Amino acid sequence: MLTVAEQAYKTDTGRQRHANEDSYFAQAPVFAVADGMGGAQAGEVASRIAAGAFEKGVDEGASAEGQLEEIAQGANREIHDLAQKDSSRAGMGTTLTAALVHDDEVALGHVGDSRAYVLRDGELKRLTKDHSLVEELRRQGRLTEEQAEEHPQRSIITRALGPEPEVNVDTMTFPAKDGDVFLLCSDGLTTMVTDEEIESIMLEARSLRSAVNKLVDAANSRGGRDNITAVAFRVAEEGEETDEGATLISRTADQAGLTAERARAAADRLRGHGPMPATHRRRRGIKIAAIAAAVLIVIGGSVLLVRQVYFLGTDDSGRVAVYRGLPYELPLGINLYSEQEVIGVQASTLSPERQDVVTEHKLRSKDDALDIANDIEQREGAVPATPAPAPAPAAPAKRKKRAAQAKRKAAARNNAAGSSTQP
Q1: Could you give the domains of the chain?
Q2: What Å distances lie between residue 38 and 42, 93, 111, 171, 190, CA to CA?
Q3: Which pLDDT band holds residue 87 (cuts at 50, 70, 90)?
Q4: Cis before 29 (ω within 30)
Q5: For 97-152, what is each residue's pLDDT tens digit?
Q6: What would the pLDDT profile of 225-281 be if each residue is shown by its tens digit?
């Protein structure tokens, strides 16, 4: 049986829109992307309804395709009814592309021009067909692939949730296998980045988090004309650990036996947190030598490891920072980490969830750590720490006294001058 071993997701407003009408759902075994239409006050609502329809969960014993269609139809009715009751939302709708991992298969439900792909054995394959005017013309042979890519009406869709009380939902089941990576995305990605480029980015990325971030960056670098959303997940045989260990520790380090667990255990023993043999005075010299040797072994063995792993933390000023190495300090003042990058965001200003990500010191790949730091910086904004202004020094008592005396003398002179001018 297959299970979800890794997942990542990202949504972005893009470069030319002021609001994000995309929504997504990512809670294994269900994933979905919805691209709203009808304006910020309507499209955003429609897509949120579609994505939120999956929050009720699924029945593992029921038909996967049947459940996806039922959920889509329910969301369609809710969006349509809302549009009928509120004239300001007339005509609102949304695309929906959803995936449900079930046993050794992935079921898909699809309406609109968002897409589902699978990356298998180094090759990207599109699993859904766009419900769009341009795609219909292409299938009829009236447009070539090249013409379809540049057609000015490529964003016009022929099917969506909401405009009609009933909608035809495409469903299919794809037989998955260990290692398959699935990608759900809105057309804000696929109109800016070709399938070949998507394939290349996903193959070169060291983790799914890095992949979705780079996909969004690629769409924005081409102009980012629309909202961009990418949701990716990898399936693996049940019982296989998530890929965090694989992406955080390189194959070279893993083959050398330098796993994060071994390094952590060794460091903990040296710091006195692990089981140590009982001491004996007559063997003190031998044990000191053994400990020193262990330190040297850990230091020497960790040289490769600390070059492969990164973690998030804070610098001396409390700002979010990216460190290379392991979050440990050994005896003799030896640090197994070095500061690589600091962003101008105070960790104390982050949400509790974000603070946990920064302070848990979880080992990550370089791309993963930098992606998280960049995401924090973009969302929270660079706010460098600034010391509180020092209070202005009070004037010395003698200076105050002299000033008061001078004021009284000036007043006396003015009074005297005024009296001498009277008749």
Answers
A1: 2-242 (3.60.40.10), 247-386 (no CATH)
A2: 5, 7, 16, 25, 20
A3: confident
A4: yes
A5: 999 999 999 999 999 999 999 999 999 999 999 998 888 888 888 888 777 777 77
A6: 999 999 999 999 987 655 443 332 333 334 444 444 454 444 444 334 333 333 344
- Amino acid at position 156, single letter: I
DSSP state of 129: -
Residue 174 burial by Cβ neighbours in a 10 Å radius (0-12, 13-18, 19+): middle
Q: How far apart are the first and last CA of the chain?
A: 116
Residue 323: which of 305, 306, 310, 304 has the closest Cα?
310
Residue given tokens 């089941």 in the structure block: 173
- For residue 82, give the nearest of 35, 47, 109, 58 by alpha carbon: 47
Closest by CA to 97, choosing from 157, 27, 35, is 35
Q: What are phi and psi of 10, to 5 degrees?
A: -160, 140
* Closest to 313 (Cα-Cα) out of 281, 359, 261: 359
Count of Cβ atoms closer than 10 Å to residue 242 Cβ: 14
**Residue position matching structure tokens 């105050």:** 400
- What's the rounded mean pLDDT across residues 344-362? 81
Task: Report the alpha-carbon distance of residue 119 to residue 115 in Å, rounded.
Answer: 13
- Residue 419 pLDDT > 50, yes or no? no
Amino acid identity of residue 80, one-letter, is H
Tokens representing 312 are 């998030």
